[in-house]
Amino acid sequence: MGPEATCSCCGYLTRLQVRTWIEPVVASTQVASSLYDAGLLLVLKESFADRASTNHSASPTPRDALEDQQQKAISNFYIIYNLVTGLTPLLPAFGLGWLSDRYHRKISLCVALLGLLLCRLGLLFKVLWDWPVEVLYWAVGLNGLCGGVSAYWSGVVALGSLGSSEGRRSVRLIFIDLILGLAGFCGSMVSGHLFQQTSGGPWKGLVLTACSVSCASFAFLYSLLVLKVPQSAAKARKAPPAVDTVSGTVGTYRTLDPDEPERPGVVGHPLSPRKAKPQKTIIALLFLGAILYDMAVVGTVDVMSLFVLRAPLHWNQVQLEPSCSSLSSPSRPSDQ
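Given the sequence above, the corresponding structure tokens read:
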């Protein structure tokens, strides 16, 4: 084989290996989620502010009362929104996981990204045609029926684990978390500026929501058309069977002694009963830790954004997202 053929073969293998990287999907999806979270909160603020000012145009109302009504309306919206977000993906995520294990690894990832794209399109259509905010319940419900963040993140972890060896698997997953955090921070930093591009026009937040839809579309098309399932780097190597040679002959022959007992080719080390199955106590503690973390950290971050919009802080669009992004967890994908 000549050097030109060797170089072309190496270039093809390099391109094929690049197509197995899951990092572009994670980065673009997290940027889209950060832009969507910022756009959703700011669009809700503008919508409920206009609704409150219209209802109280006849009789003057103190500013504090209007802010209280606006905050109450936004919090009531998020209560229902978060319930739909958390409950609808339960059964679809299990079904997509089963299909991914049985047929193809990209099924759960692609279907979940399709649901995320449809949810972002729902916010874009609300901004374009001034639909009521209740339409977003249907959009996030459709996202949940496509698996939601549960199916998406399980697909990311599965593909990331397949493309790494057992010794470097934790490093690969930590690197994916790093990409997730950096992409979310960058998306949060630019979200306020993008929202202000059309803040004075009839379509408030159009540029922000359009950028979110563009990033989500790129992630979906990349995972569907470009991304390849990597071959497992941790395949077990089968040891050759034991062979007895006969001296003085050409080649190698197996001994045919009928009295010699059979010897296994590979000596296995059976696992102890404790190592064979994980302890239920450890699994229960992991679930308990996840629930406590979600109640303490995630719930605080979700509620905090409702209080910084009103007095005495009155944060604007530019101040809101960079400040809240520093409080969010970099290892938690956005679930809005």
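The radius of gyration is 27 Å. Try to locate this feature in the token string yourself.
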